[in-house]
Amino acid sequence: MLRFYLIVLSFPLFVYSQDNRETVAILDFEGRGISQLEAQTLTDRFRTALASAGALRLVERQMMEEVLQEQGFQQTGCTSDECAVEVGQLLGVQNMIGGAIGRVGKTFTIDMRMFSVQTGENIRTKNVSYGGAVDGLITEIEILAYEISGLKAPAPLIAKRKSGVVAQPIIAGSKKTRFGAMMRSMFIPGMGQFYSGRKKWGYIWLLSELGIGGGLYLFGSQYLTSYDAYNTSIDQYNNETDVDMIAKYKAEAQGHYSDMDAAATQAETLAYAAAGVWVANILHALITGPKKDNDEETASFQSPPLRLVYDPSTSASLINFSFSIGR
């Protein structure tokens, strides 16, 4: 029984360890024509967008800085290829991403590249030019995070670029994952299915576990009742001197003991059933994952019709309302 539960508890850790994505670390972008603080802020936004894209396994900034500090390195000033490769080797990553954000007149430029730590060769390079307020670089850097990962940028980001405004949705939808569904089902059976939009299965798993739990409570109560009655009969048997009464109490004790054994057997069976339902519910949440809508529905979810936007050209905050009129 103990071994079974250990295997069950170690299952999510085993799943999580099977991550075949390439590892990557990001050096702070060099600021040319913009302040280093702005460049660092845009680097942080790029790092967040890259993590959201999910195609690469990213080394956290704090962990990266701790390793570099221990080795006497600083990100600032590490602009040469040799330095970047050495940093990547210290971090134990497969690839590094570095770049620069510059300004020429009223035009901003972003140049970045992802290269192999082992060979030093470029894996992917991306660049973009942007004319407008510096705020607009946020959208450009988010789009580049998807493109440098080898993915197509989501429709809402492309629409934000075309609109020419920096938009912040009032309600933004978060990306749902299989791992998120699995973790929820680990705590409460069926919750991962509710999270994934599979309500029918959510109710099935939840009610199944509740039903088994009710049975466990019932047989547990029966066991305790029989246990108390058994102890009472044993005490009476030990204190009795009359032969007939001794035989009676003995028979009662044996009957109560049989009831205890039956209740314990039923409770153990239900405990195994509860564990089986729990594991099956976790596997179901992981395998099925969140429901996938079509691109139009996903775009509508991630980018609601009512948005609070900032227009850099007029330096004004606006309420933007949009709706589809068909294709």
Please explain how this structure is put together.
By secondary structure, the chain is an alpha/beta fold. The protein is 57% helix and 17% strand. The protein has helices at 2-17, 36-53, 61-70, 81-91, 137-148, 155-163, 178-187, 191-195, 199-239, 243-288, 295-302; strands at 23-26, 30-32, 57-58, 95-104, 107-116, 122-131, 166-169, 306-311, 316-321. Strands 1, 2, 3, 4, 5 and 6 form a six-stranded mixed β-sheet that branches. A three-stranded antiparallel β-sheet has the order 7-8-9, covered by helices on one side. Helix 2 packs across helix 5 (137-148), helix 7 runs antiparallel to helix 10 and helix 9 (199-239) packs antiparallel against helix 10. The longest helix has 46 residues, at 243-288.
Structural class: alpha/beta
Query: Shape, please?
Result: elongated
What would you report as the Rg, rounded to the nearest angstrom?
31 Å
Can you say what the CATH homologous superfamily of the largest domain is?
ABC-type transport auxiliary lipoprotein component
Distance between the termini: 59 Å
Contiguous low-pLDDT stretches (5 residues minimum) are 1-17, 165-173, 294-306, 323-327
Relative helix content: 55-70%
| Strand runs, count | 9
Number of helices: 11
SSE arrangement, N to C: HEEHEHHEEEHHEHHHHHEE
The CATH topology assignment of the largest domain is: Rossmann fold
Number of domains: 2
Mean pLDDT figure = 79
**What amount of the residues lies in strands?**
15-25%
Identify the CATH class of the largest domain: Alpha Beta
The main β sheet shows up as: 6 strands, mixed
